Amino acid sequence: MTPRKSRSIGMGLVALLGFGSVWLDGRVAEAAGPGGIEWRSDIQRANAEAKAKHRLLWIQFTGSWCHFCTLMDRESFIHPKVIGQSREHFVPIKLQSDTNEELATQLGVAGLPATILVSPAGEIVAKHEGYLDPETFHSFLESARARVEQASLAKGSAPARESKAAAPSATRAEESLALAGFCPVSLVQEHRLVQGQHALSLEHEGRVYRFANPIVRGTFQRQPERFIPVNSGRCPVHQVDRGNVKPGEARFGILFQGHLYLCADEISRAQFMKNPERYCHVDLADRGLCPHCWGHDFVLAKGQPHWSPVFDKLRVSTVERETREAARRTEISTRR
């Protein structure tokens, strides 16, 4: 959706919600069970309530024929985190798309289920069509709320002493920013550089990652080890060939055997590609040999990296999945 179209939809929504038009849909006016989402059914009253409480209006379009709408009702909308968010930060309303066709068309709804979050000023701040699992949907709601809060803070003028006090924290955040702010999931899955959003930041093991959208943020949360750069993002070529530590860059990244390696420059990247086996074990303890096999059977056996727990910031490769916990308990040498 282009910015111009977004603005026109936003202005149209102000008109639809602000001049007395009312949509009533008794079929989806659900009673909130114990601890459930308190769905509204009157769009005008819901909009007025959202403005009065300075909350986001959560419009959920559904359909009685929609399988994934039912699935979200049964899975995502009963999740405690989602229910808690709905009660504390949103004014939720559920509408049938066929009986609210004018509003659905104005908002550009093309598929169900459709979730649209609207600010008290009538601006669309987030939109998603299709099924989202509970955790990903929770992240979607949370990131939208965070963006609105940050925008609100940016418009205000904080006292000078507060700005000075916040500066060191901002500096530390920039220093811990991973991949120069590029989205790790887009880099690994789509093989392209996509700048992450500040509002979709996530701290993991002391590093701050930013994401292109709430969905990929949820993907990272479920399996972060798939997207974290090998060797803590340090260039493997500099470390192996020159014995020094130099940070790698996302634009010189390489995907090898399902792992992301960051090289410091194009020359290092080309060197890695010529002989990846020389550099791919840079963060493997004992050069990828299975510690369990050596510790118990005195056998030198090459482990499998995709069964690698982390030991003292190094990956431990084991021969069989069942030896994973045993490998954790085995004393290994970290010498190169």
TrEMBL record:
> Any keyword Signal?
yes
Q: Which organism is it from?
A: Singulisphaera sp. Ch08
Protein keywords? Signal
Q: Name one Pfam family in it.
A: Thioredoxin_7
Question: Which InterPro entries does this UniProt record tie to the protein?
Answer: AGR/TXD, Thioredoxin-like_sf
Source organism, top-level taxon: Bacteria
- Return the protein name: Thioredoxin family protein
